[in-house]
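Task card 7
Instruction: Convert sequence to structure tokens.
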Amino acid sequence: MKNKKLNNNNLADANMVTKSNKRTRQSKPKQDSTINDIEDALKFNQHQVNKIRASLLKWYDDNKRDLPWHRINSDDDVVIDVKAYAVWVSEIMLQQTRVQTVIDYFNRWIQKWPSVHHLAQASIEEVNEIWAGLGYYRRARFLLEGAKMIVEEGGRFPRSVNDLRKVKGIGEYTAGTIASIAFNEAVPVVDGNVIRVITRLKTISANPKDNTTVKNIWRLAGQLVDPIRPGDFNQALMELGATLCTPLSPNSSSCPVFDQCSAFTESKINPSVLVTDYPTKVVKVKQRRDFSAVSVVEKLEEGEESNLNNCDDMGNNKFLLVKRPEGGLLASLWEFPSVCLDGEADLVTRRSAVDDLLKNSFGLKLNKKSNIVTREEIGEYVHIFTHIRLKMYIELLVLRSQDLNKMKDKGMMSYKYVHTKTIATLGLSTGIRKVYAVV
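Output:
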């Protein structure tokens, strides 16, 4: 079969050709080849489907990775619910995170909350504590809210894609993964790995981020999914993308479906074409550059000043932590007091901003003679989010004991003093843990 490339302009071109044919060839209607190209690009024929299913499932049976969320197998309803829960947790963790990183987090999570009923009893602070370091904390909050919703509605895990989509935080991909793996529903799943595999199988050159392209890839994945072993097939497709059909160095010679791959075939015919040309590279959105001044506020009780420089005796020290708002970036996590800056700022500007925050939010008195024991510039730390490059200016501010007096006009800001040993158990973001490590 001739290799085809699909792009967003082909359909319009096909319509134009059709109209032209109608005008010039009225007596002999002719089916347009461009339309056939598009139709071919948007479907697999039955021979391809059968070949890909058989080859991919055999390869998966021989090569699948031993992962903890794959080990739960039973026809018992209770165990199936546990499997659905495990798949759900693992898939949410795996978003934006490497498999090897997720394994330890998953094991700790399941040990603490072995079922959706256990998770529903947790607090957001407990969840953030276990999640700390995985990033994208909104995902953890959705897991907790979703668990509460399932328990409130009877405690039985939804069995179908449509019902799963009603759970807070479960989208089309996660619903398809749970439904196919835990409940054997013959539905497709499409993640970055699947997009890469299918665009190479069909040499789809359209923008992989475009909504129309994504819908077409979902349709193609739906044609491929095996009706008898949908869960295994979906995992095989994702596993192929993760291990062999990689972004930069695909191992085509070991690929179980290389003989069905249009990109591989085309690369053999035309040396200027590479398998890695698919999917089409999309220009990344430029990162926003943010700046903040972070003040690690340490409180000394009476008699503790003599231990100020004794690093072995920090267990009695207390640090001021502030809880972030429930919505937005790093929602509900604890952090050291910080204030956003308009850009690069000098020491005077930074200290003035921090002083205003501590005074106006907590009523802390910063009288150098009587209240400040020491104030030291520690350094800078740059933390990278997906879309933000945050530069933090870090200081250590040691104060003599004084009561916090939160100002009324600051609403419901939560804060507390915690001991050094307690900090390690809290749900702090990776960036804030780095700040503490620097201090």
